[in-house]
Amino acid sequence: MRKLAPGRLVIASHNKGKLVEIAALLAPYGIEPVSAGDLDVPEPEETGTSFAANAELKARFSADLTGLPALADDSGLCVDALDGDPGIFSARWAGESKDFGKAMELVEKAIGQKPADAGRDAHFVCALSLCWPDGHIVTVEGRVDGHLCWPPRGSNGFGYDAMFVPWHHELSFGEMDADKKHEMSHRADAFRKLVAAVF
After folding, report:
1. What is the C-alpha to C-alpha distance for residues 150 and 134, in angstroms, rounded to an integer?
2. Is the dihedral of CA 7, 9, 14, 15 positive or negative?
3. Is this structure's pTM higher than 0.85?
4. Is 99 annotated as catalytic?
5. Distance of CA 55 to the CA centre of its chain
6. What are 38-70's pLDDT values in tens digits?
7. CA proximity to 160, closest of 174, 140, 171
Protein backbone atom coordinates (compact mmCIF):
# COMPACT_ATOMS: atom_id res chain seq x y z
CA MET A 1 0.00 0.00 0.00
CA ARG A 2 1.31 3.46 -0.88
CA LYS A 3 2.22 5.70 2.07
CA LEU A 4 1.45 9.40 2.38
CA ALA A 5 4.58 11.50 2.90
CA PRO A 6 4.59 14.51 5.24
CA GLY A 7 3.81 17.82 3.55
CA ARG A 8 0.86 19.65 2.05
CA LEU A 9 -2.44 17.84 1.66
CA VAL A 10 -5.49 19.43 0.10
CA ILE A 11 -8.67 18.93 2.13
CA ALA A 12 -11.29 18.81 -0.61
CA SER A 13 -14.04 20.54 1.35
CA HIS A 14 -15.49 24.01 1.88
CA ASN A 15 -17.24 22.89 5.10
CA LYS A 16 -15.50 24.69 7.98
CA GLY A 17 -16.66 22.13 10.54
CA LYS A 18 -15.19 19.25 8.56
CA LEU A 19 -11.96 21.18 7.97
CA VAL A 20 -11.46 21.71 11.70
CA GLU A 21 -12.13 18.06 12.54
CA ILE A 22 -9.90 16.69 9.76
CA ALA A 23 -7.05 19.08 10.62
CA ALA A 24 -7.21 17.91 14.26
CA LEU A 25 -7.11 14.25 13.19
CA LEU A 26 -4.13 14.90 10.87
CA ALA A 27 -2.13 16.90 13.41
CA PRO A 28 0.07 14.02 14.70
CA TYR A 29 1.26 12.95 11.24
CA GLY A 30 3.33 15.88 9.95
CA ILE A 31 0.68 16.78 7.40
CA GLU A 32 0.07 20.42 6.45
CA PRO A 33 -3.65 20.60 5.58
CA VAL A 34 -4.79 23.29 3.17
CA SER A 35 -8.42 23.69 2.21
CA ALA A 36 -9.62 23.48 -1.37
CA GLY A 37 -11.32 26.82 -0.81
CA ASP A 38 -8.03 28.51 0.11
CA LEU A 39 -6.60 27.27 -3.21
CA ASP A 40 -9.65 28.55 -5.12
CA VAL A 41 -10.68 25.01 -6.04
CA PRO A 42 -14.46 24.98 -6.57
CA GLU A 43 -16.76 22.29 -5.25
CA PRO A 44 -17.57 19.74 -7.96
CA GLU A 45 -21.11 18.53 -8.50
CA GLU A 46 -21.66 15.41 -6.40
CA THR A 47 -23.11 12.97 -8.90
CA GLY A 48 -22.19 9.73 -7.12
CA THR A 49 -24.80 7.34 -5.76
CA SER A 50 -22.85 6.44 -2.60
CA PHE A 51 -20.72 8.17 0.03
CA ALA A 52 -17.61 6.46 -1.36
CA ALA A 53 -18.33 7.50 -4.94
CA ASN A 54 -18.80 11.14 -3.96
CA ALA A 55 -15.67 11.17 -1.80
CA GLU A 56 -13.62 9.74 -4.67
CA LEU A 57 -15.08 12.25 -7.12
CA LYS A 58 -14.13 15.18 -4.86
CA ALA A 59 -10.64 13.85 -4.09
CA ARG A 60 -9.81 13.28 -7.76
CA PHE A 61 -11.11 16.73 -8.69
CA SER A 62 -8.88 18.52 -6.15
CA ALA A 63 -5.81 16.37 -6.87
CA ASP A 64 -6.17 17.01 -10.60
CA LEU A 65 -6.50 20.79 -10.20
CA THR A 66 -3.77 21.31 -7.58
CA GLY A 67 -1.16 18.67 -8.39
CA LEU A 68 -1.15 17.77 -4.68
CA PRO A 69 -2.51 14.77 -2.81
CA ALA A 70 -6.11 15.45 -1.82
CA LEU A 71 -8.31 14.06 0.92
CA ALA A 72 -12.09 14.22 0.53
CA ASP A 73 -14.83 13.36 2.98
CA ASP A 74 -18.40 12.51 2.10
CA SER A 75 -20.59 11.87 5.07
CA GLY A 76 -24.16 12.03 6.22
CA LEU A 77 -26.94 10.94 8.51
CA CYS A 78 -28.94 7.82 7.66
CA VAL A 79 -32.25 7.36 9.48
CA ASP A 80 -33.69 3.85 9.57
CA ALA A 81 -37.33 5.02 9.60
CA LEU A 82 -36.65 7.11 6.48
CA ASP A 83 -35.10 4.22 4.53
CA GLY A 84 -31.64 5.70 4.97
CA ASP A 85 -32.49 9.31 4.13
CA PRO A 86 -31.17 11.97 4.13
CA GLY A 87 -28.05 9.85 3.46
CA ILE A 88 -25.88 11.18 0.63
CA PHE A 89 -28.26 14.15 0.39
CA SER A 90 -27.66 15.23 4.01
CA ALA A 91 -26.12 18.58 3.04
CA ARG A 92 -28.81 19.22 0.42
CA TRP A 93 -31.53 18.91 3.07
CA ALA A 94 -29.91 21.99 4.63
CA GLY A 95 -30.49 23.99 1.44
CA GLU A 96 -28.20 26.49 -0.24
CA SER A 97 -27.90 28.46 2.99
CA LYS A 98 -26.59 25.33 4.77
CA ASP A 99 -29.19 25.76 7.51
CA PHE A 100 -28.86 22.54 9.48
CA GLY A 101 -31.40 23.73 12.03
CA LYS A 102 -33.91 23.61 9.19
CA ALA A 103 -32.51 20.25 8.02
CA MET A 104 -32.99 18.76 11.48
CA GLU A 105 -36.58 20.05 11.51
CA LEU A 106 -37.19 18.34 8.16
CA VAL A 107 -35.82 15.06 9.51
CA GLU A 108 -37.99 15.30 12.62
CA LYS A 109 -41.07 16.14 10.57
CA ALA A 110 -40.46 13.19 8.24
CA ILE A 111 -40.08 10.82 11.22
CA GLY A 112 -43.31 12.20 12.66
CA GLN A 113 -45.16 11.05 9.55
CA LYS A 114 -44.05 7.45 10.07
CA PRO A 115 -45.73 4.88 12.35
CA ALA A 116 -44.64 5.19 15.98
CA ASP A 117 -42.97 1.78 15.87
CA ALA A 118 -40.66 2.92 13.08
CA GLY A 119 -38.30 4.05 15.83
CA ARG A 120 -35.56 6.67 15.90
CA ASP A 121 -32.48 4.57 15.13
CA ALA A 122 -29.92 6.25 12.91
CA HIS A 123 -26.27 6.14 11.97
CA PHE A 124 -23.66 8.46 10.55
CA VAL A 125 -21.45 7.28 7.67
CA CYS A 126 -18.17 8.85 6.59
CA ALA A 127 -16.25 7.88 3.45
CA LEU A 128 -12.69 9.23 3.17
CA SER A 129 -10.83 9.15 -0.13
CA LEU A 130 -7.19 10.02 -0.52
CA CYS A 131 -6.09 10.64 -4.12
CA TRP A 132 -2.60 11.33 -5.42
CA PRO A 133 -2.05 13.47 -8.54
CA ASP A 134 -1.25 10.35 -10.59
CA GLY A 135 -4.75 9.00 -9.87
CA HIS A 136 -3.85 6.41 -7.21
CA ILE A 137 -6.69 6.41 -4.70
CA VAL A 138 -7.48 4.84 -1.32
CA THR A 139 -11.02 4.90 0.07
CA VAL A 140 -12.22 3.81 3.52
CA GLU A 141 -15.55 4.06 5.30
CA GLY A 142 -16.51 4.57 8.95
CA ARG A 143 -19.80 4.41 10.83
CA VAL A 144 -21.30 5.20 14.21
CA ASP A 145 -24.74 4.01 15.34
CA GLY A 146 -27.18 5.68 17.69
CA HIS A 147 -30.60 7.30 17.86
CA LEU A 148 -32.12 10.72 17.31
CA CYS A 149 -33.21 13.09 20.06
CA TRP A 150 -35.64 15.98 19.82
CA PRO A 151 -35.30 18.87 20.36
CA PRO A 152 -31.64 19.17 19.30
CA ARG A 153 -29.18 19.41 22.19
CA GLY A 154 -25.89 21.29 22.35
CA SER A 155 -24.02 23.75 20.17
CA ASN A 156 -20.77 21.84 19.62
CA GLY A 157 -20.04 20.04 16.39
CA PHE A 158 -21.90 20.84 13.18
CA GLY A 159 -24.47 19.45 10.79
CA TYR A 160 -26.87 17.02 12.47
CA ASP A 161 -24.68 16.51 15.57
CA ALA A 162 -27.15 18.13 17.98
CA MET A 163 -29.86 15.53 17.28
CA PHE A 164 -27.66 12.41 17.28
CA VAL A 165 -26.94 10.40 20.44
CA PRO A 166 -24.50 7.49 19.95
CA TRP A 167 -25.43 4.16 21.51
CA HIS A 168 -24.44 3.73 25.17
CA HIS A 169 -24.07 7.49 25.68
CA GLU A 170 -26.38 10.11 27.12
CA LEU A 171 -24.90 13.19 25.44
CA SER A 172 -25.57 14.14 21.83
CA PHE A 173 -22.61 14.87 19.57
CA GLY A 174 -23.66 18.51 19.91
CA GLU A 175 -23.12 18.31 23.69
CA MET A 176 -19.82 16.39 23.64
CA ASP A 177 -16.47 18.11 23.57
CA ALA A 178 -14.44 17.54 20.43
CA ASP A 179 -12.01 15.05 22.00
CA LYS A 180 -14.85 12.83 23.21
CA LYS A 181 -16.56 12.91 19.82
CA HIS A 182 -13.27 12.08 18.07
CA GLU A 183 -13.04 8.87 20.11
CA MET A 184 -16.15 7.42 18.51
CA SER A 185 -17.36 9.39 15.50
CA HIS A 186 -17.88 8.02 12.01
CA ARG A 187 -15.09 10.34 10.79
CA ALA A 188 -12.71 9.07 13.46
CA ASP A 189 -13.60 5.46 12.59
CA ALA A 190 -12.84 6.10 8.92
CA PHE A 191 -9.68 8.02 9.80
CA ARG A 192 -8.32 5.12 11.87
CA LYS A 193 -8.71 2.90 8.80
CA LEU A 194 -7.02 5.47 6.59
CA VAL A 195 -4.10 5.80 9.01
CA ALA A 196 -3.65 2.02 8.99
CA ALA A 197 -3.54 2.09 5.19
CA VAL A 198 -1.36 5.09 4.34
CA PHE A 199 0.73 6.18 7.36
Report:
1. 46
2. negative
3. yes
4. no
5. 10
6. 999 999 999 999 999 999 999 999 999 999 999
7. 174
